[in-house]
Amino acid sequence: MKPLEYLDRSLMCDGVALADVAAMAGTPCYVYSAKTLRENYRAYADAFGDTPHRVYYAMKANGNLSILRLLAKEGAGFDIVSGGELFRVLKAGCDPSKVVFSGVGKTSAEIDQALEAGIFAFNCESEPELALIDSLTHRRGVKARVAIRVNPNVQASTHAYISTGGKAHKFGIDIDEAEGVYERARAHKSLLIEGVSCHIGSQIFDPTSLLKAVDRVLEFIDKLRGRGFDIRHADLGGGLGVGYKPDDEVPVISEFVAALRARTTGRGLEVMVEPGRSIVGNAGVLVTRVLYRKRTGTKEFVITDAAMTDLIRPALYDAHHEILPVRAAEGLPTICADVVGPVCESGDFLAHDRTMPEAFPGDLLAVCTAGAYGFVQSSTYNARPRAAEVLVDEGVARIVRQRETYEDLIRGE
Ligand SMILES: *Cc1c(COP(=O)(O)O)cnc(C)c1O
Question: Could you tell me the residue range of the domain that residue 212 belongs to?
Answer without folding.
Answer: 103-273
